[in-house]
Amino acid sequence: MDMILGHFYCDLDGRFSSIRNQETNLGNFFADIMLSSTLSDVAILNSGTLRSDQIHPKGDFKLKDLVHIMPIMDPMIVLSASGEVIWKALENGVSQWPKLEGRFPQVSGIRFAFDPTKPPGHRIDPNYIKIGDEYIDLKKHYRLCTKAYLYQGKDGYNCLKECEVLVPEEECPELCTAIQNHFASMSAVTTRLRRPSRHLQKFVAASKSHTTVSFKMSLDAPTVPLNNNNGISNNKDISNNTNGSTDNNNGLMIENQTPFGSPSPDHNHRDMGLCRLEPKVEDRIIILTNEDMRKSLESERNGDIEMRLTN
Question: Which fold has domain 4-192+272-310?
Fold first, then answer.
């Protein structure tokens, strides 16, 4: 359990008073991995999944920290959800605010604003919801990654029951597995950046996120499984493995690797900055507390529409 998964350059806010009430960098980090690991348009994670109720200080992030945050294995699922269903799901997520309920969403690939002074079910104006760089189309269907738990209608997410399943939970990695795979994959990338290689390394920021990186590995790079039938979390000896290696390179760490995100001996390496783990709050969830905030959103929307008409 003391195995180091990675190194964060900032504190991670997992306090219930934060994560069940507003966007947090810990929620963004987990939601971003959901999005990128399933190639989805939107990810919605109920904040009740994250149970540590503390600030995790910057520095080495260990397996026991991950287990403390996520003590329960949660299978993910990918759905085809209309813009209207996504809107309803978000409405449910903020319906009990400011109560510290586990239904409050942490999201990726989407931005929205809600007015807590309005009655539940009417707090979000869909005109201000953006998926990627586009305003939401209520009739269009999007690829939504969430937990199988929410697809079953738990935490009030009954609207998700009507969605078509694109990738069933049996074929999706469990969330904890996806997170461990993310660390293992990035650790492999970091290691390869630190040694001479004849292969080209290509890095592309995933969904313009600060917290995840998609990449193309060279042909001799280690393979990291994603399916939970072969996933890292199913390694029976993982909690007892303290040397940072596993058999066949299919476990959490690869022999002689450096944990992902840890300080580099060569701080001037131009590519290492892309592997720096420092998730941020990015205004994905905006709480409208005054009329000026609403006017700002309206001005932004009008500007986007005018730009598209001009182009």
Answer: 5'-nucleotidase;  domain 2 (3.90.780)
The pLDDT of 63-91, averaged and rounded, is 97
Question: Which tens digits make up the pLDDT trace of 215-261?
Answer: 332 223 333 334 443 333 333 333 333 333 333 332 333 333 344 44
Alpha-carbon span 303 to 281, nearest angstrom: 24
Q: What is the mean pLDDT of residues 73-92?
A: 97
Sign of CA dihedral 87, 90, 92, 97: negative
Closest CA to 178 of 284, 70, 52, 105: 70
Pair of tokens at residue 206 = 């995933």
H or E element, residue 212: none
Region of 14 (left: φ > 0; alpha: ψ -120 to 50; beta: rest) is alpha
pTM here is 0.77
Q: What CA–CA distance (Å, rounded) separates 302 from 309?
A: 11
* Closest by Cα among 3, 5, 14, 74 to 44: 74
On the question of pLDDT at 181 being above 80, the answer is: yes
DSSP three-state, residue 268: coil
Dihedral-angle region of residue 261 (phi above 0 means left; psi in -120 to 50 means alpha; beta otherwise): left
Calpha distance 242→77 (Å, rounded): 32
Buried b (16+ CB within 10 A) or exposed e, 114-147: bbeeeeeeebbbbebbbbeeebbeeeebbbbbbb
The residue extents of the domains of the chain are 4-192+272-310
Mean pLDDT of the chain: 80
pLDDT in tens, 115-126: 999 999 999 999
